[in-house]
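Q: How do we represent a protein-ligand complex in a form that can be generated token by token?
A: Start from the inputs.
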Amino acid sequence: MYNILKHAHSGLRWIVLALLIAAIIVAFKKMSNKDTDHQKQPFLFNLIGIHIQTLIGLILYFISPKVSFAEGFMKVSELRFYAVEHISMMIIAAIIITIGYSKGKRQDAPQRYKTLFIFNLIGLIIILASIPWPFRGLGAGWF
Ligand code: HEM
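Then emit the structure tokens for the protein with protoporphyrin IX containing FE bound:
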């Protein structure tokens, strides 16, 4: 169960990043032109992707051997990362993307797409900075 969730979480990162980048590109294209027909799907799929990844992450948080609150864990970068940094930054990113989606929904074009562009871009930057990329030496892989 743990290994399946861990690899699902690790692999889903690529789908979440692809959906997020697609949403940012669509928002950018739409915010710079006047046509008003609303494209809902890219932003809805993006939201669903980040929520599923967050849910799997939260389950992992309670079963992963990498999450430990042993004595002095805050002084050990890998323990501090999985116990505090990764979960808090990813929850912040998920909240920002969710706020952007619901705020955008209540606005008209082109303002709606400016909102979706800005909130998803901020979300992307936080997520990229909070992923345990293999070159960060946090014991995580590419998949
Ligand atoms: C609240 C949200 C999240 C929580 C609580 C969470 C929790 C975790 C935990 C506990 C691990 C360690 C799993 C292990 O190796 O034992 C982990 C690993 C990881 N997380 Fe998250 N995560 C969250 C969101 C995300 C998001 C949004 C992404 C990327 C889009 C992400 C990408 C990863 C990656 C790539 C790993 C490394 C997996 C590996 O070892 O290959 N996480 N996460």
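Residues 2-31 form the longest helix (30 residues). Residues 2-136 form one domain.
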